[in-house]
């Protein structure tokens, strides 16, 4: 699934999950090292656990962040299953 981000430097997140486990995450744009690190950390984790951990994370004065946007993407992915 491709999720179009809102309010972050990254423009989109490509995310895949199977049987409730994240199998792949790729951020398009954003802070390359941080987003690559997040993607590696969450791969293999349960979708619900990642949502719970990352939802509401802020970036500076912004009302969202790349991790928060990933949580939103995962919620949308769950709804589409």
Topology diagram in text:
Elements: E1 2-4, E2 10-18, E3 21-29, H1 32-42, H2 47-54, H3 66-80
Antiparallel strand pairs: 1-2, 2-3
Helix pairs in contact: 2-3
Description:
With 81 residues, this protein is α+β, with helices and mostly antiparallel strands. The chain has one domain. Helix content is 42%, strand content 26%. A hairpin with a 2-residue loop joins strand 2 (10-18) and strand 3 (21-29). The relative contact order is 0.24. The model has no long low-confidence stretch (mean pLDDT 97).
Give a concise summary.
The protein is α+β, with helices and mostly antiparallel strands.
Core attributes:
single chain, 81 residues, 3-stranded antiparallel beta sheet, 3 helices, 3 strands, globular
Q: Classify the beta-strand content into a percent band.
A: 25-35%
Strand order of the largest sheet: 1-2-3
Distance between the termini: 11 Å
Global shape: globular
Largest sheet: 3 strands, antiparallel
**H/E element order:** EEEHHH
